[in-house]
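Quick one, T. Sequence first:
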Amino acid sequence: MTGDAATAPNATSTSLPRIDASAGTGDGPGQEPPLMGLGASLPPADTRAKTEGTFPYAADLWAEGLLWASLLRSPHPHARILSIDTSAAAAMPGVRAVVTHEDVPGDSNYGRRVVDRPVFAAELVRHHGEPIAAVAADHPDTARLAAAAIAVEYEVLEPVTDPEKAFAAEPLHPDGNLIRHIPLRYGDAEATGEVVVEGLYRIGRQDPAPIGAEAALAVPRPDGGVELYTASTDPHTDRDLAAACFGLEPDRVKVVVTGVPGATGDREDPGFQIPLGLLALRTGCPVKLAATREESFLGHAHRHPTLLRYRHHADADGRLVKVEAQILLDAGAYADASSESLAAAVAFACGPYVVPHAFIEGWAVRTNNPPSGHVRGEGAMQVCAAYEGQMDKLAAKIGIDPAELRLRNVLSTGDILPTGQTVTCPAPVAELLRAVRDHPLPALPKDTPEDDWLLPGGPEGAGEPGAVRRGVGYGVGMVHMLGAEGTDEVSTATVRVHDGVATVICAAVETGQGFTTLARQIVQEILGVDEVHVAAVDTDQPPAGPATHGRHTWVSGGAVERAAKMVRTQLLQPLAHKFGMSTELLQIADGKITSYDGVLSTTVMEAMDGKELWATAQCRPHPTEPLDDSGQGDAFVGLAFCAVRAVVDVDIELGSIRVVEMAVAQDVGRVLNPKQLAIRIEAGITQGIGAALTENLRTARGIVRHPDLTGYALPTSLDAPDIRIVKLVEERDVVAPFGAKPASAVPVVTAPAAVASAVRSATGRPVNRLPVRPQAAVVNAKN
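Structure tokens:
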């Protein structure tokens, strides 16, 4: 799927530079990386389970007396429900329960961020695929047939699918069509530049395409509560939402996180978890649902389709004077993460460049299109494609090299964002851009005649070599880390050590970002214990928050670090007291405890002496604040940056595009696990290539077309180019635990802009829409 293409044969680790062991591991130059602890390339803890087929996917769960669920979904994007008749479905043999909006005992609406989405549509249907009813039966086929037998009478209404028309349309929701408006004002509105370029850009609807079926199992409890087994990425929020809809106290609902195959957004849709729990409570039996891929496409959130209008002002030397922009996000039927996505889009609308004057208008609106929400780099990815298109236009109009134009404008530490926030974290943007610019270009086909030249469109493509043009383009992007605008970021972790084995208890969900491996490394580093286990996650543990924006590397990793250091103090204090020294004079390495003078030398096992030590700690980064009425405020905890140079071959007759190479330089703070870091960057680049060239969930008047993996084109291993990580800048962020920055979102943000830039270079066409359509890459007399 989207995040797996990094393991493609031509995205090999042989293209990676050797990471200097002295920068992030504490070893001297030229030494081998450590075998354990921070800086080691520990493999993921779940590798064996996944390869042997024992990984606990929710779709494989079973329980005695199991029933199967199916949802009836609306075939219309906008309609009034006149009646719902469930009698035929309820009378079918094997059917145990049918529930609609009338059977929701608690809150009828839910929402992870804004409570505006009904469990079941009651009076109005607002998007194609919205749940109407749910059925539980003794066989999955019976459940599906029963759901299809529910008779719903609709009055079909005209859908609002153009976000520009949503402003004047009749309200689609009691909360109105406008979710949020941010007017950012920074500097002098009258400022102008000698050179002005304008552009209109459109970004398509990218689906997160999670690996594996979305599935859940609901099991009723003797106390009248229910347990939900699912691959949740935010279990405590999902528990609270479900409890409110069930009319139960949160402590009577438990969410147990099963194995998460992978996630690049909110993994499981609460829109089927909650109906599943209702059916379990109604029947008194365990109920299971494994969503089809079509149901996933219809139900879960996608990347916001976005319309962007830009005007850039610059002086004759290419230095930016003012940026004006209008940004319109299509939220679909419900708000979800649209407010946060809009804040990121507006705040980063000028990119990682110094802009003295900025005037940005941003809106997020409801339509009858599929729901939009959290997908890696939301908001930042869309504006990156637009502002980098503008930088290419400026470079062409002024007549200077595109990379040089960018270098004249890049941010650095101490500069001020258009939101008025000072960049206090490391911001080595110029260093990153120079690294990809100066990296040797891949050989042209004429330089390697002994090799087969892979034409755009593949080896069996219809193209001719004479019609192929090569282009080189750049993308420079940024993302924020953790939550924003006053989000209370906190995570709790417990570390327990007994008989030489450490256990970490933390509700941070492993979604493929490597948290469980990082937790092992932290404990190994601090306590010198080789065997470290990370407990399974459920809501009986203290909350750790959602698995987004690299939170668990920073916040949950920070909590594990603090708890491990408290255990370390408990371990060392008796020894320090016995030898009349402070614990700071003792060190732990390779399972041994030694003093600075060599007088004390013992093993961790001997010092433990059969005792059980444990500690619980929290990590809470410094607070942020919401953007004010002028878009000003210290809204972000930290920032991460990336530069990408894309090399593409374009068949200018057919419009076929092949990405030849992606050179990446990234600001990572500190390398904690070299191999996992490389995989995360490669996966992010590949997901970005999908957004640039193939991924667009198409709709026709609000109806999702081809909601399956044959109609939605994900990049595969054959589409992955050579991905060369040419530089990792390890300038530690002093406010982050270990100094590290999350790594996977910023390549997703930057790669689409770089690919589009390279296609412009090859064709001379404006390329103002993502994914790039073939006709946009065709060059002929009419163009």
